[in-house]
Amino acid sequence: MEGASLIAEYVGVGVFALTGAIVAARKGMDPFGFALLATVTGVGGGSVRDMLLGVPVFWVHEPVDLAVCLGVGLLTYLAGSRIPGAMTGQRPRTALLWADALGLAIFSTTGALKALSNGAHPFAAVVLGTLTASFGGIIRDILAGDVPLVLHREIYVTAAVVGAAVFVLGLGAGLPPALAAGFSILAAFTLRGFAIQRDWSLPPFRPRAE
Amino acid sequence: MEGASLIAEYVGVGVFALTGAIVAARKGMDPFGFALLATVTGVGGGSVRDMLLGVPVFWVHEPVDLAVCLGVGLLTYLAGSRIPGAMTGQRPRTALLWADALGLAIFSTTGALKALSNGAHPFAAVVLGTLTASFGGIIRDILAGDVPLVLHREIYVTAAVVGAAVFVLGLGAGLPPALAAGFSILAAFTLRGFAIQRDWSLPPFRPRAE
Amino acid sequence: MEGASLIAEYVGVGVFALTGAIVAARKGMDPFGFALLATVTGVGGGSVRDMLLGVPVFWVHEPVDLAVCLGVGLLTYLAGSRIPGAMTGQRPRTALLWADALGLAIFSTTGALKALSNGAHPFAAVVLGTLTASFGGIIRDILAGDVPLVLHREIYVTAAVVGAAVFVLGLGAGLPPALAAGFSILAAFTLRGFAIQRDWSLPPFRPRAE
């Protein structure tokens, strides 16, 4: 599990870094701006998780994740300005949504896993998984002056909660960790995917007039 | 004091969670959006306080506060969409302001108390009380794209500073903690209450032309 | 080095606090609003750095920095409302840019220094220096509803990265810490200064059409 969990974390960091770089592209930033937005988005959620847990922040002593963010940021800058059509039209928006969905699914699970490994209450582990999954994107959207994705109408937070809850419940039911993680990542990504493609949503709040 | 302090903390978390849920209602979010905004607003200030103090974050191992936030978020969703007039007109705005005022008063005091208990300098305890009281609301308002309440003209930060300072000075003067806490919560709430009702404010900054 | 490093830190905190107070002036806040914005901007970057490093946050037990922020905030309120022309026209904007540049240069270096002293990987130290330098300003700009300076086109993040990298590489090459710090602060400040005065920038991203 250890190795698979590390790889999942790198993938999650990488795809979130990509969403940060896409926002940097839309803002017309320079290469270091790409690097900063990619880094803050890629490692933001996990950093908040580790600070809340009171454990050493994952990238301070072992900076592979930073290298991933930096690489993704600079590659996006280079590729996006050279490959015709890579960053025009609807394409960047679509890429951002799907990369964000994959990061959301992975981090809701790895966030809950790290919380449990550090003695958090199962209920708190679901909340920490949800926060890990949504915080990087929140920082990215606020920095860019966009309406955070979490505030949109289609299913978003729900997918993160479902992912983290499936994992915690799966472990509780005795599933092997790798299997529980597979289920929960798949569940969260599928749910969010349908939300992106078919505008799935739960009933939004409607006040009742007097 | 221990028991009373815990109850005060739950009340503070609950009323801040309510303000988060009211914002979720205005944004037309789904039930999980209510839960997220209620949780982030309810436990945000105390989480920042605990991370700055370097102590375990209060809700990670003992998630009663999370249950309070979740309950408040879902109840607000249900009640607000069923009870006629509960969330229309000026009512939600008024409820938000007063709930925020109560949370502000409680957290300025409990924030200063926890800071002192963990060896913070009295001056730093006043600052930590102020931050605990204002940070949840800042996160809520930024997420929602509103101008943070702390930036409004009427007395706001001042009430939090007064609350925390009255508590720290009261303890220093030898008052029993429960009495000092009672005074300081009352002082902060009254001050903020007058600001809401009568637009009380300190002299705002006016530049002097050449 | 210890004493010089402390003085540099106070200067950095003070000039960032000044930029927070200038924003408070533009928003027409009251004296406690000045104090809050000055404090959050002055100690924000260093607080995030210390929380990421998992070390006690610098101002909790030794609140000289808080006193600096409070003093700068109140002095700006008083001087700005009394000295004719101090806060009208282009002057506050110019003062904010240059104070921010000085704070950026100092914090990129002291941030990297503190990270290395606490066992961070050299690469992570450069990132932590950059975050320390930019985070206070990010909080200030987001609170004020401005587009964060880090998102502007001219060189900003780049100056912080260069400062932190010069310092880490200088130490690695065997320079005495004080000399490495002097070089790196000078490099970052000069770079950012040219960006302010002559609109220096790196090539911004330009998508290539199909």
Automatic annotation (TrEMBL), chains A, B, C:
A Pfam family (short name) is Gly_transporter
Where the record annotates domain Glycine transporter, the positions are 7-78, 97-169
Q: Which UniProt keywords apply?
A: Cell membrane, Membrane, Transmembrane, Transmembrane helix
Subcellular localization is given as: Cell membrane
Give the matching InterPro entries: Gly_transporter
> What is the recorded membrane topology of this protein?
Multi-pass membrane protein
Main location, first listed in the record: membrane
What residues form the membrane-spanning segments?
6-25, 32-52, 64-83, 95-117, 123-143, 155-173, 179-196
Which family does the similarity line name?
A: Belongs to the UPF0126 family.
The name this protein carries in UniProt is Trimeric intracellular cation channel family protein
Query: Whose protein is this, by species?
Result: Alsobacter ponti
